[in-house]
Records
---
Amino acid sequence: MVFGKKGSKEYSKVSLDDFSDDSSNGGDDFVESGIRTQQELLRKQDEGLDMLSASVERLGQMSMGISEELGHQNNMLEAMETDLDEAGDDLDMVTRKTKEFIKMSGGERNCMVIVALSLIALVLFFLILYV
């Protein structure tokens, strides 16, 4: 090691005898302690990264499962939408045919007479059963 004097440009070599064996061992112990501490920190970081990796892997699997489930439900919704469209078309056709039938049977007036007579027949039927 080389140390300089304050204010001068002359340097002198420091002998190793100036340091005791205890201080050199203490320095080695300090370095070894620092290395052990760093290795421990790296081991803890590795454990943390392993846990994080496992969590990310689980999240990835869960997201794939959710994606598959959403795909199945999307297909079911599309099928249901198609069925509803077909049912709506069928209902429109039945409504159209009912209107044509009412017109062919003489209009709404004749239809109302038929409904009224049907209700009267139903009331008479219940009267006969309960009397």
Note: The longest helix spans residues 21-104.
---
Amino acid sequence: GMIRYVLGHFFNSFKVGKREQVGTIIGRDPYGNTYYELPAQPQLGKRRPTRWYNTAETGKDDVISKDLWAGFDSDLPSEWESWLRYRRDDPPTEDEVMQSLALAQMKKRNAAVLEEKRLEEMKAAGLDTAGPKPQDHEKTPYPKYAEFEVMPGEMEQQDKDKWEKHKNPYTKS
């Protein structure tokens, strides 16, 4: 009775590899990512569904709960990321994602307007409007040369504007 039940569940826990491998498409986002889900199969030891997405650029699977760095190199709407991380049960609707992206764009425009006003006020007051200077702990103690690599495999000129993707597109500077 009980021993057979326990041993049966114990041996079934090793059958995780026998799960179906093709998930159902749950949805797509405006960035071109496709989201998939395999339903939970408690009889095979999987108590919750497996969720992942294929990136638009690479077409490679990123399973957030398995890969430590999954999702850090691609654009993911926050609603889809919370679904992937099991913070919400139901996948987001397209309207929900588009409303969130529109709100983000509005905030970027407003931030650019406020920054422009701040710079004008600083110029009127005669203050320096240049960006902050590097502090002592931020200055490199060693010289950098353009012909040598800073990190193995990375040349300095390739890494000059690594934050370009994250800058506000509405700022004038």
Note: Helices lie at 2-12, 78-84, 94-124.
---
Amino acid sequence: VTLLRQAVKAHRKYTDEAISVQGVDRHLLGLKLAALENGDNIPQLHLDTSYAESLTFRLSTSQVGAKHDAVMGFGPAVPDGFGCCYNPQASRINFSVSAFNICPDTDSEQFVSS
């Protein structure tokens, strides 16, 4: 639980930065969109395979905080990924995990049990 709390705190900090336009991903997206809008070439960074890989989120997580005892969920961001939604309660944390069943590498039951 301690590690989850640390992860939630770090995620909250990054979310606050993104909301206040301080997240680096927003600036990089802005560079690409400005180039497209002006008819310029897309910056080389955006064409690099490592940049594309950095936008591939095999584990997509989100807190859906609710005071009610509810389990919520969402799908994975990529076909070979997992969606993990959590709802912290006073005495427990509700989780839901999803995966596409078309990918042999993603088994949500195995993910949960590990």
Note: The chain has a mean pLDDT of 85.
